[in-house]
Design goal:
alpha+beta, 8-stranded antiparallel sheet, two-stranded antiparallel ribbon, 10 helices
Length: about 300
């Protein structure tokens, strides 16, 4: 394998993707009705690259040369907010994958958490201005964000009296009545201001309203909206990079980037999604550290 080998990746047409960036990158005419969310360049079974101009899978070419590819490279175009999510470490992935296999869950089952036995740390390099949620904020900052909204007074009191991990668990496990009491007044205030352009993209309130608009508008009762207020809002300029280790909660909100990660598709979702949410498993995987995370 001394010479370069051209490969052709696999597009993923998730509904949060954009319509132009990836097709233009590939020199393909975009289809107005089809979003292009990700372009996978690797050997994961869900999106196996192949040698350009052939049907030969990249994995077969590597195996013939006695080589392997332990990472996955992606191009992302984030038009709509992704779910708040966390990826497992290696030990949890191995155990979770084996347990779900033991229960006979199909790999593509909608209620499956682990689709392989690998961890998924990832580094992202921004191609356009990118915005994401990244880890938990300091408790004092979360309280300051919640204070302007009277319906969140109870959440403020809880944060003053209990550890963040306890309050976060209460939010994710809140019933319909609790979520309604928190979110109905909050969205009645924020959504009209977001629609009229009064909110700024530098503030959590803008992204909370935008996420609600994408997930039911005034009727949205997703606990992920409250989790959003608990997380750091990070803006990444083109050419800058950010690393998401395993067990760190995060969510891409907007922008195009290149991601390099371990060869995995394991995602545990905590909100702002119509896909499977397993709160118990999510909480078991989360590392909750106010003010950021210590990389280990």
């Amino acid at each position: 394998m001394s010479a370069f080998t051209l490969i052709q990746g696999v597009p993923q047409h998730y509904d949060w993707g954009g319509y132009g960036f990836i097709p233009q990158l590939l020199g393909t005419v975009p289809e107005p009705s089809q979003p292009w969310a990700e372009y996978w360049l690797g050997v994961h079974p869900k999106g196996m690259a192949r040698l350009e101009g052939t049907a030969q899978p990249l994995a077969a070419r590597l195996a013939a040369a006695g080589a392997s590819l332990p990472f996955l490279l992606k191009v992302l175009d984030v038009r709509a907010s992704l779910s708040i999510q966390v990826h497992p470490d290696k030990a949890r992935a191995v155990a979770g994958f084996a347990a779900e296999n033991g229960r006979g869950l199909a790999l593509e089952a909608g209620d499956r958490n682990y689709r392989d036995d690998n961890h998924k740390p990832e580094v992202m390099v921004a191609l356009t201005p990118c915005v994401l949620l990244y880890g938990f904020s300091a408790v004092s900052d979360i309280i300051a964000r919640c204070r302007p909204f009277p319906s969140l007074d109870g959440l403020v009191t809880a944060l003053q009296q209990q550890p963040l991990a306890v309050v976060y668990r209460q939010v994710l496990q809140a019933g319909a009545a609790g979520l309604d009491s928190w979110l109905a007044p909050l969205l009645a205030d924020l959504l009209p201001r977001w629609r009229s352009g009064q909110l700024r993209g530098e503030d959590h309130a803008f992204w909370l309203a935008r996420a609600a608009a994408e997930n039911g508008a005034e009727a949205c009762r997703d606990p992920g909206l409250l989790a959003l207020l608990m997380m750091n809002l990070v803006h990444v300029a083109p050419g800058e990079a950010i690393f998401q280790p395993a067990r760190l909660p995060h969510a891409y909100l907007h922008g195009c980037n290149v991601e390099l990660m371990a060869n995995s598709d394991n995602v545990l979702r905590g909100g702002l999604t119509r896909k499977h949410v397993d709160v118990a498993e999510l909480l078991a995987v989360h590392r909750i550290r106010p003010g950021g995370i210590v990389l280990e």
